Every structure is written in structure tokens, then in C-alpha cells.
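Justification of resources, computational component.

The compute hours requested in this renewal are based largely on the per-chain cost of generating structure records like the one below. Each record pairs the submitted sequence with a full C-alpha cell output. That output is archived, and it is also reused by downstream analysis tasks.
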Amino acid sequence: MFEDYDALSFDCYGTLIDWEAGITAVLGPWARASHPELDDEALLLAYADEEARLERENPEALYPDILADAFRATGSKLGIAVTDDDATRLGASVPDWPAFPDSAAALQRLSERFKLIILSNVDRRSFDGSNARLGVEFHKIITAEDVGSYKPDARNFDVLREYADSEGLRLLHVAQSLFHDHAPAAAAGLPSVWINRRHNRPGWGATPDPGSPVQPGWTFNSMAEFAAAAVPTAVPTTEPTTELEGNA
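The structure output for this chain reads:
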């Protein structure tokens, strides 16, 4: 199915690392201390547009600062005070965000056949902590800090395409967010695979609504499903052993 490609570029947060769990681990206790009725989905909905707006308005800001300011903006939206310690806690939390249970094994399997690349809305220092959880060596890491802008800005995908072209790589982009990844990848002429991590939940969670229909080339509900399709188990070539004549 994927024989035309020899490299995979990945979004990290939402695809390989469970950023919604990481965000709500900080926002949840803060919000429910004064508003017990606020569930995680409501918090993510309030948060998503604030982070995307700040990334658009402050493209050269480091990701921990984006997180801290998005927390403050979410507090203003919900009418809940956010202290500097609160904001700093979210900004520093990225290395603590858990990997999805299937990410490391899937990446190891994919690395048997493909060169692996990261294209992520993060800073280098924060990604180092996440990379340790993924257990694989990436052929290339491209962060928002490196580019000076955040996805869905076209510049991030221009840098990715330029790198792939310079290496002669036939590239396929793999991501969860239709807003951050699939829409701009399509605009850049990159085929893509949707890892639909929210297939069993309604709404967009921590990613904004893409605003228009997006049609990735392939869709899987997990990295495990994608890895199994992209690097299938070899079919045995030997004939099965037959029973000895006379055995029942």
C-alpha cells in the first residue's frame, strides 16, 4: 500500500504524544477547584483556539511561552484566575506528557522500512523529553523553533519539502490534526495519513476545527494500525509440514 514512499514525516503532539492528556493533567485540577462541572472536553474546547491564535500572532515565541499565555487566555475566557505558577506549570509540562501506548512500538516497526522525520509545533528542549518516550532515532527533527513559525503556516511545510527534496526522499506525512497538518500538507502537495486518535470521541478536542473539508489519503485509528499496514508481517514462503502417513 505504501511502496511509493521511503520516508515518513510525523506530527508529534496528538499523534505520537498524548498532548490532550498532558494539557488536561494541568488544566483539569485548576479549573475544577472552582468549577467542578467543567470536564476535560470543555476545557480542551476553550483552550484550543487560544493556543492556535497565539502561535499565529507570535510565530517566533518558544512553545513553553505559548502554552503559558494560552493558559492565561483560557482563564480569562472561563473567568478563572491563572497565577504565574499555574502558567509556568503548563509551559514546563511538555516532557511529562505521555506517549500513546502504541507509539514507540509502531515507530520501531516503521523504522525498519522508512526514514522517520518530525515536523512539530514545539521547541527543541521540550521535544527532547518527548523523544525519550518514543524510543526511536529520527532521521531529521524540524521544530517550530527551527522554522520560526507554527503549523499550519505554510513555511513549516516548505522547510519539510525542501529537506525531503534535498535528500531525494519520497515523503508521506502522518498526523492527527486536520487543522495543523492535513490541510497545509495538501496545500503543499504532500500526501498524508490521518491517525484519527479521536475516532471514538465527538468534537475536535485540543485542535481547532479545520473550517473546511479535508481528505487525507488514508485513515487509521491508531499508530499500531498504520504500522501494521505500512510494514506488514512477512508471509511464510515454506510449505506447511504435512502429517506422516498413517497418523490420524
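The chain has two domains: 7-17+98-230, 20-96. Confidence is low (pLDDT under 50) at residues 235-248.
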